[in-house]
Design brief:
- The protein is an alpha+beta fold.
- The chain has one domain (7-62).
- 23% of the residues lie in helices and 27% in strands.
- A three-stranded antiparallel beta sheet has the order 1-2-3.
- The longest helix is centred in the N-terminal third of the chain and has 11 residues, at 7-17.
- The protein is globular, with a radius of gyration of 12 Å.
């Protein structure tokens, strides 16, 4: 699985939540719960994954590319 993100959003997430997107792959190495986010029409399939990072429950909102 490859991960990519917007660097401006990454820096904002570090400042706001203290979590770096660089660590996202670690979350997917363990048990996760992923559901489709179909609350709105985003123009693409969007998913919400719950998992653990350094003992903390984290939520990752993501899309999957082919």
């Amino acid at each position: 699985m490859d991960f990519e993100w917007d660097d401006t959003k990454r820096k904002l997430n570090i400042k706001k939540h203290g979590i770096d997107f660089i660590n996202a792959p670690i979350v997917f190495d363990s048990y996760t719960l992923t559901i489709e986010d179909n609350r709105f029409d985003y123009g693409e399939e969007r998913f919400v994954t719950f998992g653990l990072l350094e003992g903390r429950v984290v939520v990752i909102v993501h899309t999957e590319n082919d």
